[in-house]
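Q: Can I see a sequence and its folded structure?
A: Here is a first one.
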Amino acid sequence: MSGYLIDITPAVSPALAVWPGDTPPTREVLLDLRRGEPLTLSTLHATVHLGAHADAPSHYGIEGAAIDERSLDYYIGPCQVVRIHAARGTRIKPQAFDRARQRHGGLAPRILIATGTFPDPTVFNQDFAALAPELLDWLHERGVRLVGVDTPSVDLFDSKDLPAHKRFLVHDMAILEGLLLRDVPEGFYELIALPLKLVGFDASPVRAVLRAAKRQGSGFGSDGERAGESGAKKTTNAPHATDAAAV
């Protein structure tokens, strides 16, 4: 897979489902070449929690940082895709990751969790799985800095106290939500999912992509660190493979 990107971002169109009550994406065409105008010019109207997106701490903490204040280091670097067979409407606990560690060894500093409980980004099902707060404590203890999910939220749909979000805030970990992981094999990758520099905003859409990562041994220690992460960042496309040289 060297040289190929794995696009884990759902397409943004009016068909993309958003959280009930939030603003769905619409396009307003201000100028159009097909109308004989000199160029095409569009305006996007949408929530910033759109498809694949990064939550800012200000989304769930009154003193939390806005998305423009977050270090980009969270969103680029070694990551691991883990497939968890979670029942709908339940929270994933650390025991589920014990099995993943047995299969793959240590954990990467960025973990993307494929639950399969939100299978169609154009249909908003409310019974998706979420993360248990003790799982976030467990991952933090092992050096994990970012957790991404294939669901609209790290908390359950009807949660009001948002315990998972609160543990992200306590541990200063980063959140990615709305990822497309259905066709991505488990394993180790390089993640690139940079948020826009939206000043004061509580989230940002991202174009999330993976590239297959070479591993030496497990590649990761028990503390979640990977040799060479502080060096040059490299950045694979699995439902649609794209030659990296052309990206």
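Q: Show me another, different protein.
A: A second, unrelated one:
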Amino acid sequence: MGLSSSAPLSLSGNPTLVVNGALYVNRPLSGPNAVEISGNASLSVNGTFAIQSGTRVHCAGRCSPAPYPPPATFDRPLPDPLAYLQPPSGAGLSMRTCSNCTSMQPGIYSSQVSLRGGTVTMAPGIYILRKGIDVAGNTTLTGSGVLLYNGCEREQPASCSAHGGAISLGGTGSASLSPLPSTDAAYPNVLIFQARNNDAELSITGNSTTRSLSGLIYAPGSDGVAIGAGNGGLSIGWVVGTNLSVSGNGTVTVGP
């Protein structure tokens, strides 16, 4: 995370962020704060915690004593570890639509996917979401072995993804999504991939009792990745993005 105009990692309200693994934070575009913690938010890192030299963890909340280990530092900005990933091809995928549907099939969705309640099951495969997906209400969303690509297929001009939509997974329902398998040649363990020229915020919030997104969330060009557990819990595999904000009253766990 890094290269944002504010702190690349911010926690506010009453959430607990638990990172089971490594947490690396590059410097922001301006200001000294790599990490900002306010309110009753808390951070716990069970692994390597490192920020770029010349930055700091700024705490205006429940941080005394600090619940996280003192961060190590590194000199040069860390490069994008997934820069090699290419947009998926649309070859062989059908054009599809979904508005309050009860099941989804892999394919190219040219309009926004809108889910407002009920149980929706995603079949395994690649979902190219040209205009994003908006989940609200009491929707239960499940899917095993899926990739949600928020943008246009590689055969389309870059401007197609630049005018794409957002990913918003909210509401009071539950979600259980798992990524393409680790044996997949192109996108191993990748669950959400937002096009690099799509700057829309990626939001995973809501007030469900539990949500599990077990794969990698990759949003290199997004203006922000907002995650929150409401009054429940949220589990995410990994996050790579430019600006991560955590809020709510529950526990967000990143890593196994």
